[in-house]
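Dear colleague,

Thank you for sharing your sequence with our group. We've completed the structure prediction you requested, and as agreed, I am returning the results in plain text so they can be pasted directly into your records. Please verify that the sequence below matches your submission; if there's any discrepancy, let me know and we will rerun it promptly.
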Amino acid sequence: MNDETNIALYAFRTFGDTVLRAAYACCGSYHEAEDITQEVFLTLHGQPRTFSSDEHLKAWLLRCTINRCRNYIKSGRVRLSTFLEGADELPDNSSDRQDTEIREKVAGLPEKYRSVIHLYYYEGYNIREIAEMNEMSENTVSSLLRRGRQKLKLELEKEDKL
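Please find the predicted structure tokens below.
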């Protein structure tokens, strides 16, 4: 894994789907997520690094992905409508309609909740790891998770009443 000439290729083959899903969860647009994923791996290819483990590499890739998504969201190219535009293109292996609806609702959350919820539920990181990746305190991550869950619950309940 530490062979610098192949690190980007190895990382793409191993974590490409994970980075794409994280980018989609953060920016809400599948096409933008593909672009961000490409930029992340090009960065790794252009500036190879040495990682102590696969988990270290994955954490770096996700941190880089989240930063690029934040830059994209701040860029002004984003409109509120883009968060749900690519919902039918959501990359998932499940044909379960309820799972797709929940993913759409998560994609509609504000970015600060969306990224934390994605890392916690879809990537399996714990609060401490998410806090380190996002350079936040563990209490902040816990609060964001709690508030994100509340917003998600309200959205799902509102849909059920319609």
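Summary note from our side: The chain has one domain: 7-161.

Kind regards,
the structure core
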